[in-house]
Amino acid sequence: MAKVGVFMADGCEEIEGLTVVDILRRAGIEVETISINGTDCVTSSHKVKFFTDTKAQLADYAAYDGIVLPGGMPGTLNLKANDTVQQVIREFFAQGKLVSAICAAPSILGEAELLKGRKATCHPGFEESLIGAVHVEQPVAVDQNTITSRGMGTAIPFALEIVRYFMDDAAVAKVCQGLVYSYR
Question: I need a labelling partner for 131 at 20 to 30 A (CA). Which of 8, 51, 124, 176 fits?
Fold first, then answer.
C-alpha cells in the first residue's frame, strides 16, 4: 500500500491539507502529516491549530511514495523557503515519485522547474510561477508523476486524483460513494 507525506506549514490552507489526509485515509492509503515548523503543532491561515504526525527533521522520506504541498498564505511561502521541502520535491520528482500541490503551492514546483512541458494548474494569479508548464484552467491537472490543483474548492477532486494515481477508478468510486460525492 502506498504511503504519502503531506507537508504542513504555519499559514497553510487547512481544507487543502486535511481534505487530502481524510480522503487518502478513507481509501486505505497511509498518510503522515509533516510539520516544517520544528513543532508538532501547525496554525493554519484561518488560525485553526492542529497537530501533525511527525516533524520534517524526523520524517522517513524514503518510506513515502508521494508528497503533497497544500497552499494557503503564508503557508506556501513558508514551504517554499524550507530547505527540506525543496530537497524532497526535487528528489521525489527525479525518482518518479508523486509530487503534488494545490492552490498557490504549484508555484513552488514551477519555480523549482519541475513542471517544464507538463500540464499544470494553480490558483488564479500564480500562473507566471508555473515556469515552463502548459497551464490549463481545470480543477486538477495530472501529468506523469505531478498532480496540481486550483484551490480549496478543488480539494476533493485533487485528493481523488491522488487516490486514482496510487489505486484505481474503483477505489475512487468507493470513496465517492462514502462521501456522497459525484466526480467524473
Answer: 8
